[in-house]
Amino acid sequence: MKFLWRIAMVCVFSAGMAWIVPAWATEQALQPGQLLVSGKVLEGRDVCMHCHDENDQKPTMTILKTRHGVKGDKRTPECQGCHGLSDSHIHNAGGGPVRPKPDMTYGPKSEHDATARSEKCLGCHEGGKRMHWAGSQHQGQDVACNSCHNIHAADDKVLDKTVQREVCFKCHKNEQAQVHRLSTHPLDAGKMSCSDCHNPHGSVGPKLLVKNTVNETCFTCHAEKRGPFLWEHPPVAEDCLNCHTPHGSNVTPLLKNRAPFLCRECHSGHGAPYDGSKLPTAAAGGVTLLLHGCANCHSQVHGSNHPSGSYFQR
Fold this sequence. Notes:
Distance between the termini: 116 Å
Radius of gyration: 33 Å
Strand content: under 5%
Largest sheet: 2 strands, antiparallel
Strand order of the largest sheet: 1-2
Helix content: 25-40%
Oligomer: single chain
Structural class: mainly alpha
């Protein structure tokens, strides 16, 4: 009986040491960015979410509802992949009432410039539509990825076609005013987004356009205006913006000015002898332009394939 009692005591003591020793040893062997909680070593996102849970003031756990929270995808980053190991933040180095900030912060009061913040994102999101980010207008204006994107939000507004404009209009106030004019693209209706025409991450074309030129960008939707035509209208072939303003106008369809004033910006000499104020009548041997509308006769202003369409009348 004494022998069995001794064996039992040894087993109990050994079991206790098996629970105590690994906890002590683990605490000494913690790697930067790890946290010991109740004898268990936490790492990765578990370290951050030990404190930043559903009761946190900042909605950080909503990232689990995004692509950045898909655990089954090997490409999914951990919190520390973007914010750094942040060992002093995790263990509250100094023991003060306010923890030191993480190694990398992204909020409005971040001590890191736009370039440093964007580099973290570009470490994974490089190439494709972002290959022209370096040197782009947004990059040159110190716009960072998190200036437009909110990766912790379940629904990132800038990725939603119906509300993307709200993000863009935070900076582009003139364009915001123009889309409320009489004639506009259906931005405000949510039927198209700013990124249908612009690539905010950079482009080889002007104004961050998705294509190399204005016309190529317009033709992605307005293919019927592409041509080629037997009779081409030179300003149309040159640049759609010669006559149209893309974000909004009080003259339909998105015209910069009313006819005949828009037409007379080019046609002020031979072939357009009328100044629009005193139109000749049929009795005087002239042609009456009904309501001063050049397009009433020259209806094929974008170009004509008719053998007799040199004046874009058919």
